[in-house]
Amino acid sequence: MRARNTDVESKILEFVNAYIEKNSICPSYREISAGVGLSSTASIHNHVKRLEQEGKLDINGRRGVSTRRHRMSVQQVPVVGQVACGTPILAEENIEEYVPILKGELGTGEFFALRARGDSMIKAGIEDGELVFVRRQDTAEEGDIVVALIDDAATLKRFYKDKRRHKIILRPENDAYDDMEFDDIVIQGKAVKVLKNL
């Protein structure tokens, strides 16, 4: 029987706590593996399982791990493709993966996540490749950043109404891009959080 490595388990507990404090989401097994310097996610899984049985860790869903010390509820948010921050691209409703995030970070509602593509929203702090968390809703207030469906393509822009001309304006947050004007659009949701790249 393999001897228990309490040093690794201590590193796992320390890494998970630090990760949650910094990112407000739980790390995946792969991230824990990289964080403690072990190449085997299977080995990490075994350590995590043992720590969970002892009540030191609480596994939330398939990928997320959180310490009981935090006593925070975690939800699994589906990543459903990409959204254009530039020219609209074909919307994909296939779930690529689930991302664990603390419920308090998003508020109430039903959420999905999209990976931003392009640079039209950089002044709003949304850069290419970053994960955007979206509350599913079909309405928006002036100035909200929305995911809008236009001719089967999704785009991420700031929402405005030109009441005088009866137009909907989707405004980029980059001076290199022009406003987009429409008679009507389908709003799929409102952006509520961005997971920043390091």
Chain-wise SSE layout:
Blueprint: H1 6-23, H2 29-36, H3 41-53, E1 57-60, E2 64-67, E3 74-84, E4 89-90, E5 97-102, E6 111-117, E7 131-136, E8 145-150, E9 153-162, E10 167-171, E11 180-182, E12 186-195
Helix pairs in contact: 2-3
Describe the protein's architecture and organization.
With 198 residues, the chain is α+β, with helices and mostly antiparallel strands. The protein has three helices and twelve strands. It has helices spanning 6-23, 29-36, 41-53; strands at residues 57-60, 64-67, 74-84, 89-90, 97-102, 111-117, 131-136, 145-150, 153-162, 167-171, 180-182, 186-195. The strands form two sheets. Strands 3, 4, 5, 6, 7, 8, 9, 10, 11 and 12 form a ten-stranded mixed beta sheet that branches. Strands 1-2 form a two-stranded antiparallel ribbon. It is elongated and about 70 Å long. It starts with 5 loop residues before the first helix and ends with a strand.
CATH class of the largest domain: Mainly Beta
Number of helices: 3
- Superfamily at the CATH H level of the largest domain? Umud Fragment, subunit A
Distance between the termini: 40 Å
Q: Radius of gyration over alpha carbons?
A: 20 Å
Content of β-strand: 35-45%
Total count of strands: 12
What is the makeup of the main sheet? 10 strands, mixed
Work out the count of structural domains. Answer: 2
For this structure, the CATH topology of the largest domain is Umud Fragment, subunit A
Arithmetic mean pLDDT: 81
Give the helix proportion (percent range): 10-25%
Helix and strand pattern: HHHEEEEEEEEEEEE
Q: How would the global form be characterised? A: elongated
Question: Could you say what the CATH architecture of the largest domain is?
Answer: Ribbon
